[in-house]
Amino acid sequence: MSSLFLAMLAFITRLPVPARWTQGTPFEHYARGIVCFPVIGLLLGALSGLVFIGLQGTVGIPLAALFAVLALALLTGGFHLDGLADTCDGVFSARSRERMLEIMRDSRLGTHGGLGLVFVLLAKVLVISELALRDMRMTAALGAACAVGRGTAVLLMYGHRYARKEGLGNIFIGKVSLARAAVTLAVAAILALALLGGHGLLAMVVTMAVIFVLGQLLRRTLGGQTGDTIGAAIELGELVFLLALL
Questions:
Q1: Cβ-contact 7, 30 below 8 angstroms
Q2: Cα(117)–Cα(180) distance, integer angstroms
Q3: Beta-carbon-side half-sphere exposure of residue 24 (alpha carbons within 13 Å)
Q4: What is the distance between the alpha carbons of residues 183 and 219, in angstroms, rounded to a whole number?
Q5: Average pLDDT of each block of 10 consecutive residues along the chain (246 residues)?
Q6: Which of 106-125 are b and which e, b meaning 16 or more Cβ less than 10 Å from the residue's Cβ?
Q7: H-type helices in the chain, by residue range?
Q8: Contact criterion met (CB below 8 Å) for 79 and 60
Q9: pLDDT by residue (tens digit) across 151-176?
Q10: Residues 6 or more apart whose Cβ sits within 8 Å of residue 191
């Protein structure tokens, strides 16, 4: 299990994980690693929270929030943000389903993708600033948000089909069992409850509802899910969770 956790850590973050630590973990086993997603999110959020706390007294709350969001983007290599931008470019292009999927494969950033990135990043900075002004424990809030964002993304994996014939998302989408989906959500719920009490659990319920609806809308629009839509769900899940804390 430790090698699978490290494989997941190397897969969805830019944290340095020596290759020899993940050897022997084939791609077809990665779907079992979905249960690690909330714990990895907790780690990323905690690191982002430490950046916020370390800078808050020096540069003030707004800039500390900006650097916390930047740190989170750097820790993931913009992996999920790229998925968010591609999803926005495709879905809001108002083209046929096949053309939407082609647009999402295009590495160039379009207008809708740019607007989606600006909105989500700006919203995160603003909501983190507001939570800090309300004396929220930011390391706990960011840790829980990142754990729940990655945990609830399983709602776009279980019971969904992959919209393409091949791609990274095919590792998880349609390959996650009901038991693993339930365990993933349970781990995220336990972390939210431990970090923020009932308030955190309620925020997770709101996040689950939003991500479930998002998954249904994307399935209707694209005929299934892709790695990009999973990334978009993670980014939006983090934001919804933080907004729900308000």
A1: yes
A2: 31
A3: 6
A4: 23
A5: 82 85 69 92 97 96 97 95 96 91 90 96 98 95 98 96 74 91 98 97 98 96 94 97 96
A6: eeeebebbeebbeebbebbb
A7: 2-12, 37-59, 61-76, 79-91, 97-105, 111-133, 138-152, 178-222, 227-245
A8: no
A9: 999 999 999 999 877 665 578 898 89
A10: 38, 39, 42, 143, 144, 147, 148, 151
Name the nearest CA neighbour of 200 among 156, 139, 155: 139
- Residue 114 has phi, psi (to 5 degrees) of -65, -45
Rounded CA-CA distance 94/13 in Å is 32
- Measured CA to CA, the distance from residue 41 to residue 57 in angstroms comes to 25
For 8, 60, 126, the CA distances from 75, given in Å and listed in that order, are 14, 22, 20
